[in-house]
Amino acid sequence: MKKILFLLVLALLLTPALVIADEEEEPVENECGIFNLGSCITQKLFEHTTSIINAPIRPLISLIKKLLSESVVISVFKFLWQIMAYVISIFYALLFLYVGFNFMTSGHDV
After folding, report:
1. Is residue 41 part of a domain?
2. Residues ≥6 apart with Cβ < 8 Å to 15
3. What's this model's pTM, rounded to 2 decimal places?
4. DSSP code of 30?
5. CB neighbours (10 Å) of residue 43?
6. Domain count of the chain?
7. Same domain? 45 vs 75
8. pLDDT in tens, 51-108
9. Distance (Å, rounded) from C-alpha 91 to C-alpha 85?
């Protein structure tokens, strides 16, 4: 149990590093310097914190983006859909025969 927990914690710790390594570089708007050091430190700290928080979510978002942008191939389900339609048709045909047989053999006047 401890080994699994250790591997899970290790994976959670290494995931942000892997995602940050895959990040594309964004254009730099203002360079850090001596004159704007206070705002630069807070901005970089905020960017680092948000990247750590968002890092585990990014692979899921990229997977969802890939799944939504792929073309849909419905030919895979064609045969399964035909079998389902045949089974439903046979069910309704047998139900219709059963109801008709019960109607004809019942002794009620309608």
Report:
1. yes
2. 55, 56, 59
3. 0.35
4. S
5. 14
6. 2
7. no
8. 999 888 999 999 999 999 998 888 889 999 999 999 999 999 999 999 999 988 887 6
9. 10
Q: What is the mean pLDDT of residues 22-37?
A: 66
In this prediction, residues 3-27 reach a mean pLDDT of 65
**In contact, 57 and 15? CB cutoff 8 Å:** no
CA distances from 4 to 1, 54, 106, 107 (A): 5, 24, 67, 70
Structure token digits, residue 89: 């048709």
> What is the enclosing helix (H) or strand (E) of 26?
none
Listed in sequence order, the residues at least 6 apart from 58 whose beta carbon sits closer than 8 Å to its beta carbon are 19
Q: Does pLDDT of 8 surpass 90? A: no
Q: What is the pLDDT of residue 12?
A: 67
Whether residues 8 and 44 share a domain: the answer is yes
6 and 42 fall within a common domain:
yes
Residue 93 has what DSSP assignment?
H
Return the higher-pLDDT residue of 69 and 35.
Answer: 69
Amino acid, res. 15: T
Determine the structural domain holding residue 44 and report its residue range: 1-18+36-70
H-run or E-run covering 34: none
**What end-to-end distance do the CA atoms of the chain give, in Å?**
71
